[in-house]
């Protein structure tokens, strides 16, 4: 059961699986600074799926050290690894504010990100989901907003070597929405990345959170499409983050298996497009 408490302006969930603790601390500090700039208290649920007591002890110490009255960190240890969406669903049952932020442990919000996002959502009740403009470590745009993928573009981007990818570069550019304008800052997008999503909590409750059949990968695309049935899905170019993550290419065989399995689930549910 997902309960929404409108007295809380914003809740946040971060799911961990042995994530780098120093990066997590930086993520939390940037989150706190952005909340202070927006002048709102924040309730953050840290969902720990590490299955390592020593790691969990360090996370508990970090939460105790950084938590305060206006910035409450709750540490929840799961009995098993439920996957990315399943981990966030645990946080959703802990109670949501009027709006909810799904955040990766390797994402740093800009100082004004929360204020800009919440101001937009309060002015535009038709918006169900708001995504940010993402920059990488070199301040280059990461293009995390996407169009509906073809099988070719998806697997070329994930697994093909650079030389071969160039043969389908126009398809990749289309999929990655490299033509997406920054002005005006608010633009409709078909698909958003789960690394950072601001959602209206009533929408999350209505769609019952993430589909846990996706253990990893594509759960964010699935969530976006279901949220889109209840409102607009947009990218706000003035809501800026730094994202230090990567994609499936170069991951372990197990990660590649999850990628292919989740891609099959996604296309089987929403429709196959090959080229």
Q: Could you give a quick summary of the protein structure above?
A:
With 275 residues, the protein is α/β, with parallel strands linked by helices. It has 10 helices and 9 strands. Strands 1, 2, 3, 4, 5, 6, 7, 8 and 9 form a 9-stranded mixed sheet that branches.
Principal-axes shape call: globular
> What's the helical proportion of residues?
25-40%
The span between the termini is 40 Å
Structural class computed from helices and strand pairing: alpha/beta
What is the mean pLDDT? 95
Number of helices: 10
Largest sheet: 9 strands, mixed
Rounded to the nearest angstrom, the radius of gyration is 18 Å
Could you tell me the strand content as a percent range? Answer: 15-25%
Number of strands: 9
The sequence of SSEs as H and E is: EHEHEHEEHEHHHEEHHEH
**Weakly predicted, low-confidence segments:** none
Question: Which keywords apply here?
Answer:
single chain, about 40% helix, globular, 9 strands, 10 helices, about 280 residues
What does this structure look like?
This protein is of the alpha/beta class. The chain has ten helices and nine strands. The chain has helices at 21-38, 53-66, 83-92, 113-123, 151-159, 162-165, 169-175, 201-207, 219-227, 253-270; strands at residues 10-16, 42-48, 71-77, 99-103, 107-109, 127-135, 186-188, 196-200, 232-243. Strands 1, 2, 3, 4, 5, 6, 7, 8 and 9 form a nine-stranded mixed sheet that branches. Helix 2 (53-66) links the parallel strand 2 and strand 3. Helix 1 (21-38) packs parallel to helix 2 (53-66) and helix 1 packs across helix 4 (113-123). The longest helix is centred in the first third of the chain and has 18 residues, at 21-38. The protein is globular and about 55 Å long.
């Amino acid at each position: 059961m997902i309960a929404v408490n409108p007295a809380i302006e914003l809740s946040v969930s971060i799911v961990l699986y042995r994530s780098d603790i120093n990066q997590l601390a930086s993520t939390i500090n940037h989150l706190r600074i952005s909340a202070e700039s927006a002048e709102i208290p924040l309730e953050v649920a840290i969902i720990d799926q590490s299955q390592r007591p020593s790691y969990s002890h360090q996370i508990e110490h970090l939460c105790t050290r950084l938590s305060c009255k206006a910035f409450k960190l709750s540490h929840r240890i799961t009995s098993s690894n439920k996957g990315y969406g399943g981990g966030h669903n645990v946080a959703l049952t802990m109670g949501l504010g009027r709006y909810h932020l799904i955040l990766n442990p390797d994402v740093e919000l800009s100082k004004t990100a929360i204020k800009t996002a919440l101001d937009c959502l309060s002015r535009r009740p038709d918006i169900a989901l708001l995504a940010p403009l993402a920059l990488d470590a070199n301040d280059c745009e990461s293009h995390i907003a996407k169009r509906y993928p073809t099988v070719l573009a998806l697997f070329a981007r994930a697994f093909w070597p650079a030389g071969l990818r160039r043969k389908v570069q126009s398809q990749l550019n289309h999929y990655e929405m490299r033509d997406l304008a920054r002005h005006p800052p608010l633009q409709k997008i078909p698909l958003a990345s789960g690394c950072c999503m601001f959602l209206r909590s009533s929408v999350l409750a209505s769609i019952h959170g993430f589909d846990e059949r996706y253990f990893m990968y594509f759960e964010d695309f699935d969530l976006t499409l279901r949220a889109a049935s209840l409102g607009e899905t947009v990218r706000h170019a003035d809501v800026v983050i730094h994202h230090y993550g990567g994609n499936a290419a170069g991951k372990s065989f197990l990660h590649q298996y999850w990628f292919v399995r989740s891609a099959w689930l996604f296309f089987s549910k929403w429709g196959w497009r090959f080229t």
